[in-house]
Design a protein that fits this description.
Blueprint (H helix, E strand, L loop, with lengths): L2 E2 L9 H7 L9 H16 L7 E2 L8 H13 L7 H9 L15 H9 L7 H10 L8 H13 L3 H13 L6 H13 L3 H13 L6 H14 L2 H13 L6 H13 L3 H13 L6 H13 L3 H13 L6 H14 L2 H13 L6 H13 L3 H13 L6 H13 L3 H13 L6 H13 L3 H13 L6 H13 L3 H12 L8 H10 L5 H11 L12 E3 L5 H17 L7 E5 L14 H12 L3 E3 L6 E5 H8 L1
Parallel strand pairs: 3-4
Antiparallel strand pairs: 1-2, 4-6, 5-6
Helix pairs in contact: 2-3, 2-6, 5-7, 6-8, 7-8, 7-9, 8-9, 9-10, 9-11, 10-11, 11-12, 11-13, 12-13, 13-14, 13-15, 14-15, 15-16, 15-17, 16-17, 17-18, 17-19, 18-19, 19-20, 19-21, 20-21, 21-22, 21-23, 22-23, 23-24, 23-25, 24-25, 25-26, 25-27, 26-27, 27-28, 29-30, 29-31
Length: about 625
Amino acid sequence: SSSSSNCSSSSSSRGNSGKNSTCSGSSCNLDTMDTDCRAVFWRSSSSNSSSHTVRRGSRSRSFCSEVHRQSRGFGSSGGSDGGGDRSRSDSRGSGGGGRGPGNRFDPDTSLQDLLDLGAMPSEVEVAEVLARHWSRWAGHPGRTITWLKGVAQKGRPETAAALLRVARSFEVEVGTFHFNITIGACVRSGLWETAAALLTEMEDGSISKDTSTYNCMVSLCGRRGDLDRALALLSEMRTRRVEPDVVTYNTTISAFDRGGRWEVALRLFAEMATRGIRRSVVSYNSAMSACGRGSGWEVAFELLAQMYDCALQADVVSYNSAITACERAGRWTLALCCLHAMTERALRRTAVTYGAAISACEKDGRWVAAMALLGDMECSTVKCDVVAFNAAISACEKGGRWEVALSLLAEMDRVRLKSDTVSWSAAVSASEKGAQWETSVHLLSRMASAGVAANAVTWSSALTATGRAAAWAAALDVFRAMEGRAGVAPTRVSFNAVLDAVRGRPEARLLFERYLSSGLLPLVKSSRAELDLHSLSTGAAELLLARWLEEVASSVESRPPSVEIITGQHRLRKAWDTGDIQATVCLLLDDLGIRWRVREDNPGRLVLDVASVVSCVR
């Protein structure tokens, strides 16, 4: 039996044909698409007839045979079947269907027809274009490659995928190279699902995979974060006797570098030498970037030296990776040495170069060097970005130069550079370090008007500034405002700071109970009879000590012979508390009449006499 297919004219909108089709986009049933594409071809090749009936149920002849029969009408000098469309082909400059120069394949015209379909054409629309150019396309699978390369280079991966599937439905010979072009275009454009679907079609069609195919698969796994699968593909290549090349290793190393697994990245880099694969500049750059993530600045510099030994010219990316490794390790002097080396080798510095170097200075609080680099950046052709300004503000904060930090924040507004949460947080922290609690609170209030959301670090810095100044009213206002903001919860830092501010006031007890109920402050450390106070502020430590002494005195049956208090000393003290917590605890114990002594082997611990604790509490 046969069913009638009423096809719209070629002048109708392509969007409507895509909507009415059952196979649009990247997902398509090939059997259904065969039927629709068959209708498209009959419509394109028979413009003189008012209507046509397409035999859908019968599969006695292959679609390819029908297309070959109809295509003869496209290029013939006479005949009613191809006359109407021949004039259309002539207008495009394709000429007749014989072997003369008029039937020459014009890739530009054919490619432009595909590009005119838009970024996401349906497979039926692509089939229309292929049907118009069938006489110059059938029997030449190489021209499919020309089209696939063309649309891929133009950044049209969806068109390439549709073209590949339509070519298969037309029974055109499609192989590994066709799939590699299309999958590579999809991976580069971020169409991971489409690329994965094409890989599945490749496997279902028993199409062999070569090194380029595996490179695309590894790149896809890396972009999706499936690192274990990428490593498994490398093993699968060896099992199937497909030799990995330098691109395979570079892609895998980059994937593990981005995924934070720098140890595996360096292991793969070393494996390249054992397998006799010559490393490229990209290989070294990826390995040095992995060193930066693992704070392996020594290895990064060793790799940089190896590049020159191997006659490889280190580029800007190489030096950026080395500077980033120095930045993460806090080696600001070596980062400046790399900048000097770039100048000697006539390598142009980028925003990444300056940002990493300024961040290296910021880690060590070298605000003068950071400001000098920022000035050099402004004098060069490199445009200053938010990263560079944020690093310079943070360097001033660590260097105790809050005035300079505020001037940099104002400079960002002057040069029309949008400040972010990091910019304001660094400025608030700089004011806090400079004992300018009013300025910290003022900056916090200005963030809302500037359209910048404060995070937990910003709120904690403002609370710490008010706590150190014992500005209890301002501290309570800031703490309540923080609790009213969605997505910002009090942290140990914020609780410590506000308890310092309200020390000795009635509000302190209520805030301390909330601190305990939050789960951020354990009452007793493990099962030992000791109290760890070295991570607390003075105000929080006093309240916790009083509660803990009651707990020790009440545990009559399991009472230990002695208990200890950990106060910490010097570098073990937290940065937010500059007070002498051990002196505060000793003074409190003396006031309560509790006997204590300092441990000889550890001056950061106080040993208490339990009997005096019980007597005091009672």
